[in-house]
Amino acid sequence: MTPRMFSFVGGNTGRWRIVRNLSVSGMPLGEAARLDILPNTEIKPQLAMGWALRGLTSNERYVTREEKNHLLAVQPDLGRSEASCAALIPIRKNAAWWAMTQDERRSIFEERSHHNRIGMQYLPAIARRLHHCRDLSGNEPFDFLTWFEFAPEHEPDFDRLLAALRATEEWSYVDREIEIRLILD
Ligand code: HEM
Questions:
Q1: Domain residue ranges of the chain, discontinuous segments joined by +
Q2: Which of 74, 92, 140, 158 has the fewest C-beta atoms under 10 angstroms from its C-beta?
Q3: Which atom belonging to ligand 1 lies closest to the Cα atom of 174?
Q4: 120 lines ligand 1 (CB under 6 A)
Q5: Comparing 137 with 15, which gets the higher pLDDT?
Q6: ipTM for this prediction
Q7: Distance from residue 46's CA to the centre of ligand 1 (Å)
């Protein structure tokens, strides 16, 4: 069965080398040299060298059937051999976001911010996986762990995508965001 739980462990070991660790908003995350992604595990923080963040893949909340079909047709898998660059972007949204109803959030996410419409322009160059942390027991520091993989020549595209999303109304509800860039070596 495909695992749903993933731990992202920052420390001295791991397949990915961390080349940037930037606090875009809110409290920074500690420095670490490398990142490991461990499926199906719940690393105890005291066992990790630096930090450990965990999240679960889940069902979609906001996409329509049409959008989902389009995504399924175009989105690439993780782990492509040419995709030696990655980004881990942990995100927390504020209380005002979570106080809204599902239809109010969808309206901001897509009708007003065009999150999926913007993101689709960067597929299939960028592969992605969204992890949810909010409903895990244990007072998680973020609501989402977002993970992206792409080839080095698509890094400028990824930078443009980040700038476009951060300028949206949806992002006015983000109160903590860390941008971690990585390369495979
Ligand atoms: C959620 C598409 C890039 C952060 C989503 C969802 C879609 C999507 C369809 C909604 C999933 C659902 O229905 O529950 C894309 C596409 C991208 C992209 C196609 C192109 C690569 C990004 C980037 C970031 C990001 C670069 C971070 C900087 C998020 C977050 C959520 C999300 C935090 C969860 C929103 C929430 O549930 O409140 N994305 N996205 N996405 N995406 Fe993206």
A1: 5-184
A2: 74
A3: 33
A4: yes
A5: 15
A6: 0.99
A7: 31
What is the pLDDT at residue 150? 98
Give the number of the atom of ligand 1 that is nearest the alpha carbon of residue 63: 13
Residue 40, sorted as left (phi over 0), alpha (psi -120 to 50) or beta, turns out to be left
Q: For ligand 1, is residue 24 a contact (CB within 6 Å)? A: no
* Helix locations, 28-92, DSSP H: 65-74
pLDDT, one tens digit per residue, over 148-175 is 999 999 999 999 999 999 999 999 999 9
- Of 36, 68, 40, the closest CA to residue 52 belongs to 36
| CATH class, 5-184 region | alpha beta
Structure tokens at 53: 């963040």
pLDDT tens for 115-124 read 999 999 999 9
3-state SS string over 137-150? Answer: CCCCCCCEEEEEEE
- Give residue 48's pLDDT: 55
Distance CA 1, CA 22 (A): 34
Test site for ligand 1: of 57, 146, 150, most ligand atoms within 8 A of the Cβ:
146
Averaged pLDDT for residues 32-48: 79
Ligand 1 centroid–CA 47 distance in Å is 30
